[in-house]
């Protein structure tokens, strides 16, 4: 792996299992329409070491679309992984090569998304019904690149609820050389539930991920689904190698503030909300200038400030002044001006105790 981050030594929070790659000890899940490059850059101001994932990008979008638009990212985002959606081994291999060429640290295959869109494309969670095909996909990608190839999946699909189903799936893919599995510990219901309902209604079965680690001790098993607190992360790390957070990291990003010290043993970089907002103000200014959002490129339309600030609304969640902060940062009139100093105005609305 390109990451040289060392495993933390934090007493009770250190995993009792053999951690294969401490870089993925904690990570932020790929989330469509949310974890774009601006969101990841914001998260990187809060935690330096946490592994970040892109939104899912389909192989068709890369092979037939604008590669730069989909793959460009900020150097500061490392370690960062590209998640791919697809089911054709040759196409996935081609896209994995693009991921490596563009500098990603990992390429991840989506075998967990239950949306109708991915079902029409015969990928995502549908692939759990075809482990041999997934194995072929993984092998093709591994043969094409030197970076890690990983798989994110559910524990079952529809009424396939027995542990044996996910155990055999993981075993088949592991035989193709995959060493890292990100386990969303819910079934995917392919018919009758929306993607949102699929994140909430099927019951969480964390014990399935724990059993996978016991049955495959040489694999890196990362658990995902419903994790909201540091205490929950600590408990999972006593059973598996890593924990991936989804919506909690997005809606309550300051939860990640202690991650570097707590899970990576790096207490050298402490930050506060004021520093994060100041850094993002400078980032907004640079991005607006680069993409014409400040009018400097002579373009009538370019990047809009809201494309960045929308990811920051949860920064003060649970703190005094949080509502006023969100209101300032969401003011349509001020956003229309594309002035990055809006972030400083929102900061000024906060009581000192909140920063």
From TrEMBL:
What keywords tag this UniProt record? Answer: Flavoprotein, FMN, NADP, Oxidoreductase, RNA-binding, tRNA processing, tRNA-binding
The cofactor named in the record is: FMN
Can you tell me which residues form the catalytic site?
A: 113
Binding of FMN occurs at 30-32, 83, 152, 184, 224-226, 246-247
SUPFAM superfamilies per UniProt = FMN-linked oxidoreductases
Question: Domain DUS-like FMN-binding: where?
Answer: 28-335
Annotated GO MF terms: flavin adenine dinucleotide binding; FMN binding; tRNA binding; tRNA-dihydrouridine20 synthase activity
User: What is the official name of this protein in its record?
Assistant: tRNA-dihydrouridine(20/20a) synthase
Enzyme class, broadest EC rank: oxidoreductase
* Reactions that this protein is recorded to catalyse: 5,6-dihydrouridine(20a) in tRNA + NADP(+) = uridine(20a) in tRNA + NADPH + H(+); 5,6-dihydrouridine(20) in tRNA + NADP(+) = uridine(20) in tRNA + NADPH + H(+); 5,6-dihydrouridine(20a) in tRNA + NAD(+) = uridine(20a) in tRNA + NADH + H(+); 5,6-dihydrouridine(20) in tRNA + NAD(+) = uridine(20) in tRNA + NADH + H(+)
EC number, as in UniProt: 1.3.1.91
Q: Which family does it belong to?
A: Belongs to the Dus family. DusA subfamily.
Q: Where is this site: Interacts with tRNA?
A: 110, 196, 199, 323, 326
Q: Which PANTHER family does the entry link to?
A: FMN-LINKED OXIDOREDUCTASES SUPERFAMILY PROTEIN
Summary of the function given for this chain in its UniProt record: Catalyzes the synthesis of 5,6-dihydrouridine (D), a modified base found in the D-loop of most tRNAs, via the reduction of the C5-C6 double bond in target uridines. Specifically modifies U20 and U20a in tRNAs.
For this protein, the record's HAMAP family field holds: DusA_subfam
Please give the Gene3D superfamilies that the UniProt record associates with this protein: 1.20.120.1460, Aldolase class I
Q: Which InterPro entries match?
A: Aldolase_TIM (IPR013785), DUS-like_FMN-bd (IPR035587), DusA (IPR004653), tRNA_hU_synthase_CS (IPR018517)
């Amino acid at each position: 792996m390109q990451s040289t981050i060392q495993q933390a030594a934090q007493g009770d929070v250190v995993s009792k299992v053999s951690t294969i790659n401490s870089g993925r000890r904690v990570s932020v899940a790929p989330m469509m329409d949310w974890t774009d490059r601006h969101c990841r850059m914001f998260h990187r101001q809060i935690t330096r070491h946490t592994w970040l994932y892109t939104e899912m990008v389909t192989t068709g979008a890369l092979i037939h679309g604008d590669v730069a638009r989909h793959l460009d990212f900020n150097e500061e985002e490392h370690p960062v992984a590209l998640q791919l959606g697809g089911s054709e081994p040759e196409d996935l291999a081609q896209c994995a090569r693009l991921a490596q060429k563009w500098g990603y640290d990992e390429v991840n295959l989506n075998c967990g998304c239950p949306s109708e869109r991915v079902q029409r494309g015969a990928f995502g969670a549908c692939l759990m019904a075809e482990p041999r095909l997934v194995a072929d996909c993984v092998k093709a990608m591994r043969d094409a690149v030197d970076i890690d190839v990983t798989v994110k999946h559910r524990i079952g699909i529809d009424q396939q609820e027995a542990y044996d189903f996910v155990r055999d799936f993981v075993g088949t893919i592991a035989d193709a050389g995959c060493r890292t599995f990100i386990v969303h510990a819910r079934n995917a219901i392919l018919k009758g539930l929306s993607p949102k309902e699929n994140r909430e209604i099927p019951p969480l079965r964390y014990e399935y991920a724990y059993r996978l680690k016991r049955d495959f001790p040489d694999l890196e098993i990362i658990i995902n689904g419903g994790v909201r607190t540091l205490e929950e992360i600590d408990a999972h790390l006593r059973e598996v190698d890593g924990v991936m957070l989804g919506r909690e990291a997005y809606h309550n990003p300051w939860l990640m503030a202690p991650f570097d010290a707590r899970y990576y043993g790096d207490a050298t970089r402490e930050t506060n909300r004021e520093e994060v907002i100041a850094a993002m103000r400078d980032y907004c200014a640079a991005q607006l200038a680069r993409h014409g959002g400040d009018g400097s490129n002579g373009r009538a339309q370019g990047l809009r400030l809201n494309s960045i600030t929308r990811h920051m609304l949860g920064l003060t969640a649970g703190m005094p002044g949080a509502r006023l902060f969100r209101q300032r940062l969401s003011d349509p009139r001020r956003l229309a001006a594309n002035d990055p100093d809006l972030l400083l105005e929102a900061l000024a609305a906060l009581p000192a105790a909140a920063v």
